[in-house]
């Protein structure tokens, strides 16, 4: 489906069902766009794969391929400003995450030049794209002093670099938030400050016989890994050790597995091992849980009276401190890169530079879309659109944040599946230690194979 924004903007979107409107707010940056494989959109996404030669004419558009996300929607509103700057029309094709990945695989394997700017997930696919030579090296361009590359937060900035080359620029960041019921924690003196507090308060507030839960969170084997990562870091662990070997068999990782398993097993809802974001979030939104930790990007769902019963009682707090302190993830959830095969690389960089400039990041953050520049986070005006306690929580989580929420490997899906196995064992009340040992062995072997793939 093609949506034309006259006189100069063209947006192509693809949507379908998956997450119901009852589950997700349609407002602000907490909005999650979901869609599926429409035949017309699929044909649009996969057409014109053959590489072309020759310089494009002045009427050729700069083509941006993006996730159907609130950032893409917001930046498109400012396209006329950029088009006036470069004298070239901009088109943006917006797809679901799966469609976007499939389109990249088909097009870039064919060295297609009909994509100029690519919206990518630095933690999910950048290693693969780098190995395949699909992302242009932006190192020299980001060294321009006027661009101020060092203004980007270190964690997202570091994740933009592969083998010493800057291959993407972060435009959207994400951290976990502790969502809690303010009316239920008054007798405890407020929100839990530590993971021990979270567990004890969840145990006390849970009334599972009457379908009220102390804590709800992701429990699905692969889907839970990203949110569990903050528990892992705050226990002093990580997915890998400094030498690159598996870290999920360490005492710190075992403690994080056991903690998370107990939290959900003893205070969470039934069937939680089948729950990812789409299933867990509505339980808190409907007032059936005291605490919930998930992406800060979904906060507006709890303020929308159309889907939430807790809009007057929800509070927002930083990630609670574990034995190693409060160490949440702070990640570049979406970044911009340039197609190696683009014939408009200078204009593509002009777009990336404009879209990630201090002025644009501040403008979009003031609209509720968290960026990656420290200058924006240091400006209170850019945080005014968020609830005050959420803004402060986001700021603190960003300061303390770790720059990845999953293993940094090429085969991310397979890695998450391995890492998630002990997590599920803990939720089911099984002895976590032997499961973690087996997973550690499997993950170690996986990392050897994956590291070989990274030798490019």
UniProtKB/TrEMBL annotation:
Which InterPro entries is this protein grouped with? Bact_solute-bd_prot1 (IPR050490), SBP (IPR006059), TAT_signal (IPR006311)
Q: SUPFAM superfamilies annotated for this entry?
A: Periplasmic binding protein-like II
Under PROSITE patterns, the record lists: TAT
Listed name of the protein: Carbohydrate ABC transporter substrate-binding protein, CUT1 family
